[in-house]
Amino acid sequence: MIRAHSVETVRAAEAAAMAQLPEGELMSRAALGLAEVAAARLADTEGTTVVGLVGAGDNGGDTLYAVAHLAETGFACAVVLVPPSGRSGVHVGGLESAEVAGVMVHVAADGAAAAADVVAEADLVLDGIVGIGGRPGLRPEAARLVDAVDDDAWVIAVDLASGLDPAGEEGEDDAVWADETVTFGTPKPVHLLPAGEAATGRLTVVDIGVDLAEAPAAVERLTWDDVVDLWPVPGSGDDKYSRGVLGVVAGSEAYPGAAVLCTTSAAEAGVGMLRYVGTPTPVGLVHQAVPEAVVGDGRVQAWAVGPGLDTEADDERSRAQLEAARAALASDLPVVVDAGGLALVEGRRTAPTVLTPHAGELARLLNRLETRSAGTADGNHGAPVTSAGESRGRRPVTGPADGDEGDRHEVTADDVKGDPLGHARRLVALTGATVLLKGATTLVVTDGEPVRSQADAPPWLATAGAGDVLSGVIGALLAAGLTPHDAASLGALVHGVTADRVSGGGPLRALAVAHGIRPTVRDLLARGRSAPG
Ligand SMILES: NC(=O)C1=CN([C@@H]2O[C@H](COP(=O)(O)OP(=O)(O)OC[C@H]3O[C@@H](n4cnc5c(N)ncnc54)[C@H](OP(=O)(O)O)[C@@H]3O)[C@@H](O)[C@H]2O)[C@@H](O)CC1
Ligand SMILES: Nc1ncnc2c1ncn2[C@@H]1O[C@H](COP(=O)(O)OP(=O)(O)O)[C@@H](O)[C@H]1O
Ligand SMILES: [K+]
After folding, report:
1. Is residue 501 exposed (0-12), middle (13-18) or buried (19+ Cβ within 10 Å)?
2. What angle do CA 314, 316, 319 make, to 5 degrees?
3. Which ligand 2 atom is the nearest neighbour of the CA of 439?
4. In 145-156, which positions are buried (b, 16+ CB within 10 angstroms) versus exposed (e)?
5. How far apart, in whole angstroms, are the C-alpha atoms of residue 245 and residue 323?
6. Which domains does the chain have, with CATH numbers?
7. Distance between CA atoms of residues 299 and 356, nearest Å
8. I need a labelling partner for 192 at 20 to 30 A (CA). Which of 316, 320, 327, 481 fits?
9. Which residues does ligand 1 sit against, CB inside 6 Å?
10. Where are the alpha helices (DSSP H) in 220-302?
11. For residue 135, is pLDDT > 60?
């Protein structure tokens, strides 16, 4: 598991380490590790020239010492001091060390164009403008230098790409776009969250001897090695019931294929037994595709509700299916709720619950539930719950009560994409559920747990039906007794890794991902069993 720690946790751990060490030792370890990575990349790319962009804090200090190492190794090195106060604004020891090593020192404020020319010549750029002490965004003079970086240069962000929010909460377009980030001691949340992940590039962690093993993580990412620890493996005493029965309420006359995708992936994930509740067309298809599935209601350990469910259908069989979906949601069993099932969510469930919206579904759910809870808070229980529909524009929604508490902003899919974590947290607060927000980086948010962030899938997975497959895997894991947080994040990992294998760099089909789950789990388990230690 990759664990990222908050800035506060990092600062506390660094302070504890520094109290035991000679002054400057941590920075010197950070700078040496940084210089080693930079030298390796220069060797790989046959580069010879290095420029460090140096800000006012310790991030600039790391960079100055690292550039000094690189100059001593024989590379042609320069630094550009970014603070308006020039030399007097930067780390004194670092600057002295760089000058002694023969590094050319330029002050951005003395001649912006000349400094930009120096930057443009570099084969490798070290971004030491700001680190964990930085506020989001770049000042104009720093932004001009960053713009001058040659497209072919290898850009290494020191600790984090300057301009990003270290906590990864706020998105920021005005930031360094790094090929690689060399961070110290531990990843920071921004490295794993959608707000910063793309600008972070490849992540390299340098060990500086700061112990964070026992410190609580802010963000976690499951890796292949976690599968063997978390995946439910049957023992000799198990039978199909003890392994867990999953009930699937999915598919409809309008979207019958979703039932096949969801049940196939649950079967491929190795569920003990499957029960399927649906209307005639998907029942026929499920019979053929997943002959193991038993059709009809019955005792289960968990439910998967919603893929391809048509909540508008009004014939007798569909009404019976929707009744089964509502009964599952009203039960005290674990449920994973996706797609059409999300429209049936009315608020809190006390039993374990995973909601798996994409950005648009999350926006709609927030609009519906927040409108409702505003009405309830005002004692206006009878107020109609308005569904926000598919609107993507920003428009005010009149409050449900007397209308005198002002307009609330209707959440759009773009709002969710701009702040995925913040909006996922809003849904967690409203429902108490685990919220899995789908996307290139999938977030799993549960109250009181570190956020899990999975980015295992290729963009080819953005294809119709892929979400139905994910529901089946998560449902199988819930039925086996995993917590919602583990079931959702492990499900996302295996789904993403499977998609990567199935794609092999080209297009994939959702059904092929479903069929790939079984060999992927088998291989990940075998890999974990053969790993040393
Ligand atoms: N602690 C340790 O043991 C170790 C720490 N290490 C290193 O220290 C780094 C943290 O250093 P730090 O605390 O000095 O903060 P840092 O990130 O350099 O930035 C603060 C300065 O930036 C400025 N500034 C802020 N926002 C800005 C903006 N948007 N645009 C422009 N300027 C902006 C702000 O100035 P202000 O504007 O507030 O006057 C302030 O002067 C950490 O990331 C790691 O690299 C390693 O050596 C390992 C050991
Ligand atoms: N750019 C992307 N890169 C990788 N995975 C993605 C990307 N966009 C979406 N996905 C994944 O593809 C799946 C799409 O699911 P969903 O939107 O529910 O589709 P459907 O409703 O058609 O089944 C999710 O698992 C999501 O995380
Ligand atoms: K930086």
Report:
1. middle
2. 60
3. 27
4. bbebbeeebbbb
5. 20
6. 2-221 (3.40.50.10260), 229-356+438-528 (3.40.1190.20)
7. 24
8. 481
9. 14, 18, 26-27, 30, 55-60, 62, 130-135, 137-139, 142, 158-159, 184, 208
10. 224-230, 240-243, 257-268, 280-289
11. yes
Nearest to 471 by CA among 299, 365, 346, 337: 337
The C-alpha atoms of residue 194 and residue 171 are separated, in whole angstroms, by: 8
Q: How confident is the model at residue 383 (pLDDT cuts 50, 70, 90)?
A: very low
Residue count (the chain): 533
Query: Which residue, chain included where needed, has tokens 């308006």?
Result: 84
pLDDT at 265: 98
* 282 vs 172, more confident: 282
**Position 133 confidence tier, pLDDT thresholds 50, 70, 90:** very high
pLDDT value, residue 406: 55
CA separation for the pair 286, 274 (Å, rounded): 11
User: pLDDT-based confidence at 528, cuts 50/70/90?
Assistant: confident
Mean pLDDT of 346-364: 97
CA dist list (Å): 80 to 104, 150, 181, 523, 528: 9, 15, 19, 49, 47
Atom of ligand 2 lying closest to residue 261 CA: 23
CA of 440 to the centre of ligand 1 (A): 30
Question: What is 450-498 written as a DSSP string?
Answer: PEEEE--S-GGG-STTHHHHHHHHHHHHHHTT--HHHHHHHHHHHHHHH
**CA 181 / ligand 3 centre spacing (Å):** 8
Closest listed residue to residue 7, CA positions, set 200, 189, 199, 207 = 189
Ligand 2 centroid – CA 116 distance (Å): 41
Buried b (16+ CB within 10 A) or exposed e, 85-112: eeeebbbeebbebbbebebebbbbbeee
Q: At residue 290, what is the residue type?
A: V
| pLDDT at 375 (0 to 100) | 72
| ipTM score | 0.91
User: Looking at 167-171, 248-252, 321-325, 446-450, which range is the least confident one?
Assistant: 167-171
Q: pLDDT tens digits, residue range 173-204?
A: 899 999 999 999 999 999 999 999 999 999 99
By most ligand atoms within 8 Å of CB, the mutation choice from 130, 186, 205 for ligand 1 is 130
Q: What is the pTM of this model?
A: 0.92
- pLDDT-derived band at 408 (thresholds 50, 70, 90) equals confident
Other C-beta atoms lying within 10 Å of the C-beta of residue 533: 2
